[in-house]
Structure prediction request, 352 residues.
Amino acid sequence: MNIKQLDKFLMANSSLEKEFLKGIDMKYRKINEDNDKYMLFNSLEEYEPYNITNNVISKFEISDNGTFVSIPNFQDKCKKISLRKAPRYVQVMAHKHTYIEFLYVYSGVVKQEINGKELIMKKGDICLLNTETIHSREALKEDDILIVMIITKESFDQMFLSLRSHNDILYKFIIDTFYKQKSEANYLYFNTSKNPPAQIMEQIIYEYYDAKLGWKTAMEAFMLLLFTELLRNFNDLNEQQTFASSQDELICSIIEHINQNYRNVSLATLAKHFHFSKSHISNVIKRHTGNNFIDILTEIKLKNACTLLRNTNLSINEIILAIGYNNTTHFYNLFNKYYNTTPDEYRRKQKF
Prediction:
């Protein structure tokens, strides 16, 4: 596939878009009566519970205040980055996500409402939406191509930790989104139509759809380059403003240290590194994230276990030791609690 072929592929109507052009009726229906999970699907085909087919567009659940919350499927959770073209010819209702949504306008114009305010994005523009940002979108027209990337917690902070030293705004966005129990609705908007980020983004799309040998590694490299350029441009536009307070800097440094030393870090060694007492650093973590040290450490250990399950042939026992655990039963219980599956089943599904 070359760039011309990619452009032709993205502009072509998908099977779903062809159905939209026919004026099909879109419905939200409960998966079953025992929970509040919904599927958005077209009315021409029936949805069989727990057997997701191509007619399903998105999976939703209802929050306590009645907001639709889009949740990633198992495949999206397993991937570091999932990329897809947003369906045209259909309006998207107000909703939020359990993941970071990365939007890129490949062509045309995209009209959104974010937190009650209109945002008109043009070709080359990029927008990051966090987990509490309620947004809707007008129906895309024929020339409007919107690329949507799903970036889960398990991958976002791990991939972009190295950027914190260059600019605080992205890392603060991560902390606010994923490590605070009650994060605020927030988004980052970048007008990049005349800047290098748009060119890098097109290369990312090309790598994803071309899927040649090593495309995943190439995508991660391009993503780091992309965010570096975005933050450079953001600084240029805002005259090197400081976006994080000293307390934001501190919690960012603490999370970074845990990520880098998760195999053997303890509350005691963490406190010693930052020259605090254990109780003080524990309070700092709790106050700024809403979680305790063990909760954060466990999540980091498990996401690294997932990386090893996906990308190596290490046995489960070897992975348990590699991430700093020594109790197999404890690891299996934690993994099942966080991912609702076993490590063996998780690895098996990655091969398909």
About this structure: The radius of gyration is 21 Å.
